[in-house]
Specification:
By secondary structure, the protein is mainly α. The protein folds into two domains: 68 residues, no CATH class; 108 residues, Cytochrome c-like domain (Cytochrome Bc1 Complex, Chain D, domain 2). Helix content is 52%, strand content 0%. The longest helix is centred in the first third of the chain and has 20 residues. It is elongated. The termini are far apart.
Length: 195
Amino acid sequence: MKDFAASHPIDTRMAMPPTPPMSDDHLIRYLLGALPADEVERLDERTMVDDELAARLRLVEDDLVDSYAAGTLTGEQLQRFEAFYLVSPGRRGKAAFAKCGICHQVGPGAKTLVGPALNGIVGRKAASVADYASMYSAGMKKLGADGWVWTEENIDKWIADPKAMIPDSPMALAFPGVPDAGERADIIAYLKTQK
């Protein structure tokens, strides 16, 4: 007797009725809380089963965050971004991290840029990214050799004022630091999510 289940596999993905493609403008309005609740619910459901749409949404979100960081969001988009998007601590951290993203990457496929990739930074020993080893400053290499670890407290101290810790490091020379303690906390909270 044939195994019916083996010969008739069931597609466990949720079947979704065909829907028209979403414009980037529609996705931006979704991210900024400018869509009616029923449309938000439908889009939430679609992104759970449509990997292509979810990937596009992440790209649009990254562009929106980059625009905010660059100061190019204006008018209603800026107001909605600050009033709706930035209410979530994770989103605030992602937006605050955009200034770090000029030199550092996080997330799947993160690569070394001007600075090392920061996936898994919280709890990692200083100067320990293998593909960046030859580029660390002497001061950062010394911290690593001394066993210094990127704890939340140490990251906070470093991003507050890199020049105070290692005056000759490339980061200290190019980055003035993040003076706002709340913004630093948001960045660190975001980094903790990037494994």
